[in-house]
Design a protein that fits this description.
mainly beta; 7-stranded mixed beta sheet; 11 strands; 49% strand
């Protein structure tokens, strides 16, 4: 059973940067599509970014395009989310998620398609 553990959240001023990490245990992530989600005020899990198993394909939600970058290191079984130019509206609990299937930009957008989830890490951006 794959388990995911996020780290790297915290408090940062607007305009600052954070890098989130998601480390997997219990299995290889190399064939997994991975995503980063955040919890909206209405308690829905919104896709922030997703990445294919090889790292060749990525997808981002419009508000973070050009500011956030998702990447992965399969040798380390780790997925990252580099967040730059942070804004107060980026404040949320961020979750790492994985699904054991190949890349589909449409499928990757929806939380209900992901099988494995981390516990979440809080990101707070002060103005």
């Amino acid at each position: 059973q794959v388990q995911l553990v996020e780290s790297g959240g915290g408090l940062v001023q607007a305009g600052g940067s954070l890098r989130l990490s998601c480390v997997a245990s219990g299995g290889s992530l190399s064939n997994y599509t991975m995503g980063w989600f955040r919890l909206t005020p209405s308690k829905e899990r919104e896709l922030v970014g997703a990445i294919s198993g090889t790292g060749d394909s990525t997808k981002y939600t419009d508000p973070v395009k050009g500011r956030f970058t998702i990447s992965r290191d399969n040798a380390k079984n780790t997925v990252y989310l580099q967040m730059n130019s942070l804004k107060p509206e980026d404040s949320a609990v961020y979750y790492c998620a994985g699904m054991p299937m190949g890349w589909s930009s449409v499928v990757a957008a929806w939380a209900y398609n992901y099988r494995h989830w981390g516990q979440g890490t809080q990101v707070t951006v002060s103005s």
